[in-house]
Design goal:
The chain is α/β, with parallel strands linked by helices. It contains 16 helices and eight strands. It folds into two domains: 266 residues, Aldolase class I (TIM Barrel, Alpha-Beta Barrel); 87 residues, no CATH class. Helix 3 links the parallel strand 2 and strand 3. Helix 7 crosses helix 8. The chain is globular and about 75 Å long. The structure holds iron/sulfur cluster (SF4).
Length: 409
């Protein structure tokens, strides 16, 4: 007979492979003025992120790791020889409230293997969130992993109580999904994402009309496994571009494939370097906030893969040296965003400061932490790079030193 603690050990461990749980973008909900428990923001509750970007302040568990599907990359697949466990709805609710009241967590990330049927499983997951919200007035963050094959009515119920919904596309290319997860259907995944997108948009419109209108999840996200198939970085970024464009996703998470216990022979034996995941996040950021297209990012890559040694913006700049140097006192926002080392915040501050005075190098150094990597690409009131972008050894000069840990990544 398993205790709750036994189950927790198994089901928290089984959930660790899912990266799509960051809590950014949740609606502000504060319980101080009501009798509810918890808030999505406020004193004493911290957002904590692991160095690789994973959110670690949520209780991240599976309802069960039994699953009738046989996705080759998944430790919980039916053919996997792992210890199994299953929580009841009440057990997850009690654990969440208990951890929340002790301030160990700021919310819940709940996923599940598929038992009996997609509808049955989704219903159980939804009941956890509904019980927390309606019976216990839980005001903390809730992220539910949804099952694409579930009835749209269940997705609607999930969105009514969750801050974030996600559906994993799992693999960047449909052919890989057909090979490694034959029971999953790209069409059904897309349909479910489309349904959620519509519900989110409807809810936003309704809230504009009346602030009392029922809320639906503030966003949806997805996860792609990197390195379990042969898709290169540009294929992955192209899929992300389509997902952001077609389904208005809040985030695409990239999870470097890690060899699982009892792995299928269809999977690679070694994991890709963690740096690959990191570079994909940087490129994703360039697409969403810096105005880069996948094609532009591609010019800094080789053989479809991002450069692991330098970040994708620097890689692009080195291939487009004729665009530089950029005058920080005159250039457009779009051009400033292309300067290596300049972030969106620092560019905003530069644009605001230069309305009153001409920017000097020390001003740029105050606004950007990595000004050394920007210096060859800019001119300022008292700075000229002197043809630095023509130097053959510029890449070497700007490449970060190799750390010992990276050799073993
Ligand atoms: S459906 Fe989900 S839990 Fe089940 S085997 Fe596939 S990835 Fe794993």
């Amino acid at each position: 007979m398993q205790t709750v603690l036994d189950k927790l050990a198994i089901l928290a461990d089984a959930a660790k492979y899912d990266a799509s749980c960051a809590s950014s973008g949740a609606a502000a909900r504060n319980s101080l003025a009501t009798k509810a428990i918890g808030s999505t923001e406020g004193m004493g509750i911290c957002h904590a992120y692991a160095p690789d970007g994973r959110c670690i302040s949520l209780l991240k568990i599976l309802l069960t790791n039994y699953c009738q599907f046989d996705c080759h990359y998944c430790v919980n697949r039916v053919s996997s020889n792992v210890k199994r466990a299953r929580f009841s709805v009440e057990e997850v609710v009690d654990l969440t409230l208990g951890f929340y009241k002790r301030n160990y967590i700021e919310g819940l990330f709940l996923s599940s293997g598929i038992i009996q049927s997609p509808d049955y499983t989704m219903e159980q997951v939804v009941r956890v969130a509904e019980t927390l919200r309606h019976t216990h007035s839980f005001g903390g963050y809730i992220h539910l992993k949804t099952i694409p094959d579930a009835d749209p009515a269940l997705l609607a119920r999930a969105g009514a109580v969750a801050d974030r919904l996600s559906i994993n596309v799992e693999l960047p290319q449909e052919a890989s999904l057909a090979r490694l997860a034959p029971q999953k259907s790209p069409e059904r995944i897309r349909r479910a994402m489309g349904t959620i997108r519509l519900k989110i948009e409807e809810s936003k419109e309704a809230i504009k009309e009346s602030r009392k209108a029922p809320r639906f999840s503030t966003g949806q996200s997805t996860q792609m496994i990197v390195g379990a198939d042969r898709a290169d970085d540009l294929a992955i970024l192209d899929t992300s571009r389509n997902l952001y464009g077609n389904y208005k996703l809040s985030r695409v998470y990239y999870s470097a494939f890690s060899p699982i216990p009892d792995a299928s022979s269809m999977l690679p034996l070694i994991r890709p370097p963690l740096m690959r995941e990191h570079r994909l996040y940087q490129a994703d950021w360039l697409m969403r906030f810096y105005g880069f297209s996948v094609e532009e990012i591609a010019t800094g890559s080789a053989g479809g893969m991002l450069d692991l040694a330098i970040d994708p913006k620097l890689a692009w700049a080195l291939q487009h040296r004729d665009w530089f140097p950029v005058d920080v006192n005159r250039a457009s926002r779009e051009m400033l965003l292309r300067v290596p080392g300049f972030g969106t915040k620092s560019v905003k501050q530069m644009l605001s400061s230069r309305r009153w005075r001409r920017l000097r190098l020390e001003d740029i150094a105050r606004l950007c932490r990595g000004v050394k990597s920007s210096m060859p690409f800019i001119t300022a009131e008292d700075w000229q790079p002197g043809g630095a972008t023509d130097r053959l050894d510029l890449r070497k000069m700007l490449s970060p030193p190799c750390h010992q840990g990276e050799l073993f990544a």
